[in-house]
Amino acid sequence: MKKLLIIGASGHGKVVADIAKKNKYDDIAFLDDNEDLYKGGNYKIVGKCSRFEEFDCDMFVAIGNAEIRERLQNMLEEKGKNIPVLIHPNAVIAENVSVGAGTVIMPGAVVNPDSIIGKGCIINTCSSVDHDCIVENFAHISVGAHLAGTVTVGEKTWVGIGAVVSNNLKIADNCMIGAGATVIHNIEESGTYVGVPAKKI
Asked: Quick check: is 131 catalytic?
C-alpha cells in the first residue's frame, strides 16, 4: 500500500490529493494547523504540521506560499523523508525533462523537451513550459500561464494566471508576475510586475 501525508489541506492540497490518488497512492491524509478543518476533500486531517515525524510514509508539501513551502520541504528533507514528484496523468511531459522532488504538475500542463523543473515547484493547470526552460526551486507557473522556449524563472517567483513570458528571457528570484502580464524583457530585480508589457510597480 502506498501512503502519502500531505501538509496543507487547502484547495491546493485537495488538488494535490487528487493527483496523488491518480499516482496510485492508496492511503492519503493531511496535516494542517487550521483547527476549524477536519477534512481536505475526501481525506482526513490527522494532526498539525509539527507532527510529521510521527508518520512513516511519503510526504508532500501542498502550500501555495513559496517561503512556507520551501521551509517545510527543507525540514522534511533534513529528517530524511521521501518527497515524491506528482504528475497528473493528463499532463504532457516530454523526454529529457528533469523534475525535482516535491514538484506537482497538474492536469493539462505541458513541459517540453530539455526543460528543468526544480524542487517544490507548482506547474499549474493548463500551463505550458516550452523547450529548454529552467524553472528554479519553489517557483509557481500559474493556471494558464505560458513560458516560451529558453526561459529561466528564478527561485520562488510566481508567474500569475494567464501571464506570458516571451522566449530567451530570464526572470529574477522572488518576483510576482501579475495575472495576464506579458514579459518581453529580462527581469533582473525582484518585485511585482504587471501589464502589457510587464513593468515593475
From this structure: yes
